[in-house]
Amino acid sequence: MAILSDKDIKKYLDEGRIVIDPITNEKQIQPSSVDLRLGDQFKGFKIITKPYIDPFDNTDLESYMSSITVEEDKPFIIHPGEFTLATTYENVKLPDDIVARVEGRSSIGRLGITMHVTAGYIDPGFEGNITLEISNIGKMPVALYPGQRVCQIVFETMTSPSEKPYGHEDRDSKYMGQTGPQVSKIKEDFDIINGGK
Predict the structure, then answer these.
(1) SS3 28
(2) pLDDT tens-digit profile of 20-77?
């Protein structure tokens, strides 16, 4: 596997093999990545009386979260210890022979903000907005503005195209075509549906 350079990223974008929509400034293209911006939709956990989240429970996980849309030119404030789901402003589409990773920007990380808790990997064939799992591990609240560059996407070529890319009819592609931040769909995992088997 090889990481795409800025030259190859531009080529793949021009050819339509990789789609990032919209890119409004060529400065978003870095030496080996593309900066992505923060969307205006967020989801945060409500304070509830239930003692834990059980993926085997059929209760809708959406009911544990509240949705917020931030007005133009207004910030979303994330406090120390808080976790929120957000989304990229851009829609991303990958071919069946490219994988991608989302990494936080250094300038944001130095404020104590992580852009993804664990799910920074994007399968070949994926299409949609990227849900960001944002945490504030610092000591101070931080203002995040929709449209702000908060993360970067890195592309890697695969040794061969995937036989069953994300979105294939034989795959469990729960987040294909997602728009806005999406809550966990773990209850749709085949092993949970089948009672852990």
Answers:
(1) helix
(2) 999 988 999 999 999 999 999 999 888 777 788 777 676 666 677 889 999 989 999 9
In the beta sheet, which residues pair with residue 186?
none
Instruction: Give the separation between CA 129 and CA 20, rounded to whole angstroms.
Output: 10
What secondary structure, in 3-state letters, does 54-114 show?
CCCCCCCHHHHEEEEECCCCCCEEECCCCEEEEEEEEEEECCCCEEEEEEECHHHHCCCEE
Instruction: Phi first, then psi: give them for residue 136, nearest 5 degrees.
Output: -105, 105
pTM: 0.86
Determine which helix (DSSP H) or strand (DSSP E) holds 157, and give its type and residue range: strand 149-157
Q: What are the boundaries of each domain within the chain?
A: 2-46+61-163
Contact 132, 170 (CB under 8 A): no
List, in sequence order, every residue forming a beta bridge with 65; answer none if it has no partner. Answer: 45
CB atoms within 10 A of CB 98: 23
Computed over its alpha carbons, how large is the radius of gyration of the chain? 18
CATH number attached to the domain at 2-46+61-163: 2.70.40.10
Catalytic residues: 133
